[in-house]
Amino acid sequence: MRNATDESSVDARIRMPAGRLNMRKSGQDERLSTHRQGAWTFEFDKMEARVAAVRIRTEAIAEGLPAHQHPQGQLAMVLCGTVTCEVPGALWMAPLHGGLWIPGGVPHSLRVSAEGNVCFLFVEDAAAAMPQTCCSLSVSPLLRELILYLAALPEGAQREPQALRLHAVLLDQLARMPTEAMHLPVSDEPRLRRLIDALMRDPADRTTAAQWASRLAMSERTLTRLVQLEAGMSFGRWSQRLRLIVALQWLTAGLSVQQVAHGLGYDSVSAFIAMFKKAMGQPPARYLARRR
């Protein structure tokens, strides 16, 4: 997929963030935005302790950071709205009231939806036994409050004894959180790139594999093989996974089940609920209720 400045990706209203992300490790300063200074500013080479937390609140328009990387691992904890993250080969969505773990050194772009409220927790490499691949994490009430407390600390307070004790508890809790693999495999293969971008612009599109093959000037057999090779799943399963991720975005943004079902092109609300329940193990209303 393309970076967060590409308006043909998941959210066509994405704009560049209001701030800079300073990454001056080894003398580099990567300017990711030329807008006003703001909460997106963070200097990774000046972390005062093994962990650091910052809180991001977006306004009436979504914000994002284009592809970048840093040595620290990062947890995106969603308090309100949605966070999507693209890493090489996959698109992830952080669960509402949960978190998305991005290991250190992994190139990634981030998008925070309009009216979003997110905490980013940065963790030094080897500070905790964390997964070495991206994954969704559950966030317990205790871990949530620890992250919020650290994000509210004034600058310079991270090395105080009280904060250091909390860091130890936080890292212990973080390593215990259950993981979940909720992502969409993506590809930079040019023909599949066209397919991916089109479906992300219009997830209600019900064009068949045969019709897509014709548009992409290949046989249906070649297309299905290509999707299987690049995404590791069938065309039907892949397109359903895309709609599920979009559904989770829309539901957590406040749309009703009826609105989401209609927006994704389902013939009935019950058909959408059946798909969601099969994929997530519970209907949409119960899934959201357990995360509030």
UniProtKB/TrEMBL annotation:
Domain annotation HTH araC/xylS-type: ranges: 193-290
Cell membrane is among the record's keywords: no
Superkingdom as given in the UniProt entry: Bacteria
Molecular function per GO: dioxygenase activity; DNA-binding transcription factor activity; sequence-specific DNA binding
Residues in the signal sequence: none
Record keywords: Dioxygenase, DNA-binding, Oxidoreductase, Repressor, Transcription, Transcription regulation
Name listed for the protein in its UniProt record: AraC-like DNA-binding protein/quercetin dioxygenase-like cupin family protein
Organism, as annotated: Variovorax paradoxus
